[in-house]
C-alpha cells in the first residue's frame, strides 16, 4: 500500500499548451489538479491508449507491458513522488512473486505504462501542495476524442535552421527532457524574437 501522504489520481485531460503537451492528474480527494508538461511522443502514447486507437505494431510502452507480462512482473502502482527545480520525479512499484521493487522513471513514461497495465497512479501530497492548482472550465481547451497529439514534424538539417528554428528545436528538446525552467527561458526568447519580427 502507498504511504498515507500519497493521493490517488487519474488522467483528467491531455492538451497542448503554448509551451508543450500537458497531462492533468486529478483525484476525488482534492479539488486541485496536477499539470505535468510532457514530450510529444509520450503525449501521443497516452492519447492513443485513451482513445483506443488501433496500432499495427506495439509502441514502446506496449512492448514494455508485454515484456513485464512475459516476466510475470506486475505494475502495482506508479507514484509522482517529488518535484525539484521544475522537474517532476516518478517511480514504478513492481510486484514479482510478492516481492516489491521500485524503479525511478519519468512521469510521462510511468503514466503511459500505468494506463496500459490498469495500475493506479498516486501523487505525493507535498507535490500537489507545491504544484497543484484549481482549473476552471474556461481555463481548459475543448477535448477532442478523435484527436491525438501529432508526431513531431521532420527536423531540418542544422545548417538550414534559422535562429528562431534553432530556438524552437531547443525548446522542444527541453520540454521532452522535462527541463521546464530552461523551456520557459527559451519560450520568452522566442516571443521576443517574434515581437521583433512583427515590429520590423
Short overview:
The chain is an alpha+beta fold and 200 residues long. The chain has 6 helices and 7 strands; from the N terminus they run βββααβββαβααα. The N and C termini lie far apart (60 Å).
Note the gap between the termini: 60 Å
Number of strands: 7
From the alpha-carbon coordinates, what is the Rg to the nearest angstrom?
18 Å
- The helix content is 25-40%
Largest sheet: 7 strands, mixed
CATH class of the largest domain: Alpha Beta
Task: Describe the oligomeric state of these chains in a short phrase.
Answer: single chain
Give the total of domains.
Answer: 2
CATH fold annotation of the largest domain: Bifunctional nuclease domain
Number of helices: 6
User: Ranges with pLDDT <50 over ≥5 residues?
Assistant: 143-148, 150-160
Q: Whole-number average pLDDT?
A: 82
**Overall geometry:** globular
Amino acid at each position: 500500500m502507498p504511504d498515507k501522504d500519497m493521493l490517488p489520481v487519474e488522467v483528467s485531460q491531455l492538451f497542448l499548451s503554448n509551451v508543450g503537451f500537458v497531462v492533468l492528474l486529478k483525484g476525488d480527494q482534492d479539488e486541485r489538479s496536477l499539470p505535468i508538461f510532457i514530450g510529444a511522443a509520450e503525449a501521443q502514447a497516452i492519447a492513443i491508449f485513451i482513445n483506443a486507437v488501433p496500432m499495427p505494431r506495439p509502441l514502446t510502452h506496449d512492448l514494455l507491458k508485454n515484456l513485464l507480462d512475459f516476466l510475470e512482473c506486475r505494475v502495482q502502482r506508479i507514484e509522482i513522488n517529488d518535484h525539484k527545480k521544475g522537474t517532476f520525479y516518478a517511480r514504478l512499484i513492481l510486484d514479482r512473486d510478492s516481492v516489491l521493487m521500485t524503479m525511478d522513471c519519468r512521469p510521462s513514461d510511468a503514466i503511459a505504462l500505468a494506463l496500459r497495465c490498469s495500475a493506479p497512479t498516486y501523487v505525493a501530497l507535498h507535490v500537489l501542495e507545491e504544484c497543484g492548482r484549481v482549473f476552471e472550465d474556461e481555463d481548459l481547451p475543448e477535448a477532442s476524442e478523435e484527436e491525438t497529439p501529432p508526431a513531431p514534424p521532420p527536423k531540418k538539417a542544422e545548417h538550414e535552421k534559422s535562429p528562431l528554428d534553432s530556438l524552437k528545436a531547443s525548446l522542444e528538446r527541453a520540454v521532452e527532457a522535462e527541463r521546464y525552467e530552461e523551456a520557459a527561458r527559451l519560450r520568452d526568447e522566442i516571443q521576443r524574437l517574434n515581437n521583433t519580427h512583427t515590429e520590423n
